[in-house]
Amino acid sequence: MKRREFVSLIGGAAAASTLVARAQQSEPVRRVAVLMNTAADDIEGQERISAFLRRLHGLGWIEGQNVHVDTRWASGMAGGYRKSATELVELKPDVILANGTPAVAPLLEATGTIPIVFVSVIDPVGAGFVASFGTTGRQCDGLYNLRVQHGRKMAGGDQKEIAPHLTRAAVLRDPPVASGLGLFGAAQAVAPSLRMDLIPVDVRDAGEIERGVTGFARSSNGSLIVTGSAAALGHRDLIIGMAARYRLPTIFPSRVYVTQGGLVSYAPDQIDPYRRAAEYVDRILKGERPSDLPVQAPTKFELVLNLKAASALGITIPPSLLARADEVIE
User: CATH class for domain 28-144+270-299?
Assistant: First the structure.
């Protein structure tokens, strides 16, 4: 090769390299906002957001290169949701991930244009977040939770198998959260066939929980059913401790309660929806409209048992239930 041709070739390659570098530098950094329903130091909340971020990274969205993620933690407080929703909308993100029903409503009030992907919403149609479970017709889409449709499990079906003598259950719920009200209604429908009386107990604060559970525990043959809410999650140490103190067999709404000493949980996989939500965020960032995306249902439910908790309650888990369990903690 002649020297002049060689110099020309090198110069052309260098120019092309410069153009590529400039193109990469000029690629816009997209902005993703996240509104979580727990406190920032909550283990369950951290596992959920980590799963979302890992999947987002796996889809090619790298923090500091082509995406920036802003996260706010509402700590289960109504004021926290409103304040955080306003702050996130003011950042003008390209898409927002909303964790739980209480997070979605203030976001929809704050913006009518920014796409919102929700996770762990019980009834998005009933709440008015979407028009249908097919194409949503709004800027909202995501993944909903089917706990309400598993009323027999949560109404005490598994508890009765563990402890047939049970005749009463206190249903711990947060009144403003649709999941608690919906699950209580579904459980009431099947409770007579299980010969169980259900008593609602509100969980808005620690004092309310202590008074409600203590009063309920004065009578025998009782158990607890804990519905999913940020308030219950935030007070899980208190609830687990009171269940142990009053020897109340308890069914919980997620695995984290059982790993921390609770007896049994039956719930959708709590982590997988955040991976799937990252896939929806990816599709929206690449140009798809949220109104064209269907709302997704959970794909896996998990039964988790804690044998140490059972032993402390003087309960022997029947082999039939052990065989059905997805996880047994010893």
Answer: alpha beta
Residue 3 has pLDDT above 50, yes or no: no
Sorted by where each begins, the domain ranges of the chain are 28-144+270-299, 148-268+302-329
Overall residue count recorded for the chain in this entry: 330
**Helix, strand, coil abundance in the chain, percent, nearest 5:** 45, 20, 30
The per-residue pLDDT for range 4-50, each reduced to its tens digit, is 443 444 445 444 444 344 444 557 899 999 999 888 998 889 999 99
Q: Which CATH architecture does the domain made up of 148-268+302-329 adopt? A: 3-Layer(aba) Sandwich (3.40)
**What is the residue-wise DSSP string for 217-262?**
TTSSSEEEEEPP-HHHHHTHHHHHHHHHHTT--EEESSHHHHHTT-
pTM above 0.90, yes or no: no
Q: What are the residues whose beta carbons fall under 8 Å from the beta carbon of 274, sequence distance 6 or more?
A: 48, 49, 51, 52, 55, 119
